[in-house]
Design brief:
Blueprint: H1 5-15, H2 23-29, E1 34-38, E2 41-44, E3 49-52, H3 55-58, H4 67-79, H5 92-104, E4 109-115, H6 118-135, E5 143-147, H7 156-161, H8 165-168, E6 178-181, H9 186-193, H10 199-217, E7 222-227, H11 243-253, E8 257-261, H12 275-278, E9 285-288, E10 300-305, H13 306-314, H14 328-343, H15 346-363, E11 371-377, E12 380-389, E13 392-394, H16 401-411, E14 414-415, E15 417-419, E16 422-425, H17 433-456
Parallel strand pairs: 3-14, 5-6, 5-7, 7-8, 8-9
Antiparallel strand pairs: 1-2, 2-3, 4-10, 9-10, 11-12, 12-13, 12-16, 15-16
Helix pairs in contact: 1-2, 4-14, 5-14, 10-11, 15-17, 16-17
Bound molecules: 4'-deoxy-4'-aminopyridoxal-5'-phosphate.
4'-deoxy-4'-aminopyridoxal-5'-phosphate (PMP) binds at residues 57, 117-119, 122, 151-153, 158, 228, 232-233, 261, 263-264, 289, 300.
């Protein structure tokens, strides 16, 4: 039975509570229903073709419509659709995937714990980091430090580690023994609050907030620090190059585990397999999800370094796991996905061809009258919409200029996301240079339409 868009929207608003959505407001206008995907494009139920410059939710890295992934899922479902790894059993795909992940990870990682999502992966991080210190006779070493405007998922632990205040306000978060430091956001914080510092100096300053927090809490009480190499949901915040090495130095000095949340950055997004490689650091734990299966099936997990694994494994049961930890179908799809990334040299392509090409094109947007800053890292990028460039003046946040821009994108065949007045993209890693050109034309068109609208509303002079 084929329903019309309106019929689907009516059912959607009657029965479906959407994540991170004002459901009542959505019901009034109706959800846009996406029905098909191919390569970097998606189509809605009214037949509009849209350039998906967000790869779904930062995940469809090999693009839509890859038959290899569908075939892998089909074959595994026919062979063995499910079996668990709980009771001294294992499955072929989950074993092969564990080995493959060890192969593509930095050398300290030889073991993996599987989850069904990034959020569950970060819950695992909390359990594992605290358990590790407990095994070493330091059960009080359990505080985990994250960052304001960081995003680590939406479960109780994930949302607590993250620094999204709107999330903390609902459901009694954060859970105990989680602390936050300020983010290394040069444009918003460095440039305005520390004008005497250059960007690299600000990177060191932002890292020093970790040292202050550790000293404040007591190093004997801090289990781990967690951060996204590049903050994704927070607005593609790319830290100064000085930041991560200094964070690592501080973690080592105070014997605090270093955790990178690679849910967005992993599997090539930044031009290396892992964001930690782009920023030159060696974490003790890494969370992954999204790009591991290019979003075709839910899968996540934690890469566990020898340092942590050796201790935890020596101490018997780890009382933690999910029904779908190591799901054989998800594992089979992930293997096919990683094989595509390897065989087609997609990560190398991002590092040497499409990443630099996007950088050149995207950073040139700084010449647009609305753009106050534009930066990229691999195939992720962010720009800031500003009221005036000299002197640099932001729009009143309440005007929602980012949402105005997003609306124009939505109406003109481009998915670009708004985080406040920061517009962000993370196109599929298979996006070609010609497709980057096509995307840039759409972005410029939508910036122009936004400029016309803000002028007509009298929001700029
Ligand atoms: N960590 C990061 C860095 C993320 O970007 C996300 C999702 N956007 C998550 C964790 C949570 O992953 P999931 O939605 O799969 O639970």
């Amino acid at each position: 039975m084929k329903l019309t868009t309106q019929e689907l929207q009516a059912l959607d608003s009657a029965h479906y509570i959407h994540p991170f959505t004002d459901t009542a407001a959505l019901a009034k206008k109706g959800a846009r229903i996406i029905v098909k995907g191919e390569g970097v494009y998606i189509w809605d139920s009214d037949g509009h073709k849209i350039f998906d410059a967000m790869s779904g939710l930062w995940c469809v890295n090999v693009g839509y419509g890859r038959k290899e992934l569908a075939d892998a899922a089909y074959a595994q479902m026919m062979q063995l659709p499910f079996y668990n790894s709980f009771f001294q059993t294992s499955t072929e795909p989950s074993i092969h995937l564990a080995k493959l992940l060890a192969d593509v990870s930095p050398s300290q990682f030889n073991r993996v714990f599987f989850s069904g999502s990034g959020s569950e992966g970060n819950d695992t991080i909390v359990r594992l980091a605290r358990h590790y210190w407990s095994c070493l006779g330091q059960p009080q070493k359990k505080t985990i430090i994250g960052r304001w405007n960081g995003y680590h998922g939406s479960t109780m632990a994930g949302a607590s580690l993250g620094g999204m205040e709107g999330m903390h306000q609902q459901g009694g978060l954060p859970i105990p023994d989680i602390a936050h430091i300020q983010q290394p956001y040069w444009f918003e914080i460095g440039r305005t609050q520390f004008p005497e510092l250059c960007k690299d100096e600000f990177g060191l300053k932002a890292a020093s907030w970790l040292e202050e927090a550790i000293l404040d809490i007591g190093a004997d009480r801090v289990a781990a620090f967690i951060g996204e190499p590049v903050q994704g949901a927070g607005g593609v915040i790319i830290p100064p190059t000085t930041y991560w090495p200094e964070i690592q130095r501080i973690c080592r000095k105070y014997d605090v585990l270093l955790v990178t949340d690679e849910v967005i950055c992993g599997f090539g997004r930044t031009g290396h397999w892992w964001g930690c490689e782009t920023f030159g650091i060696e974490p003790d734990l890494m969370t992954f999800a999204k790009g591991v299966s290019s979003g075709y099936v839910p899968l996540g997990g934690v890469m566990v370094s020898d340092r942590v694994a050796d201790v935890v494994i020596a101490h018997g049961d780890f009382n933690h796991g999910y029904t779908y930890s190591g799901h054989p179908v998800a594992a089979a799809v992930a293997i096919a996905n990683i094989n595509i990334l390897r065989d087609e040299k997609i990560v190398e392509q991002v590092a040497h061809v499409t990443g630099p090409y996007l950088k050149k094109k995207f950073e040139a947007l700084i010449d647009h009258p609305l753009v106050g800053d534009a930066e990229t890292c691999g195939l992720m990028a962010g720009l800031v919409l500003v009221k005036s460039k000299s002197p640099l003046t932001m729009f009143n946040a309440a005007l929602g200029v980012g949402m105005v821009c997003r609306g124009h994108c939505f109406g003109n065949g481009l998915i670009m996301r708004a985080v406040g007045d920061r517009m962000i993209i993370a196109p599929p890693l298979v996006t070609t240079c010609a497709q980057i050109d096509e995307m840039m034309l759409l972005i410029i068109k939508c910036l122009d339409l936004t400029l016309t609208e803000v002028k007509s509303r009298g929001w700029v002079d």
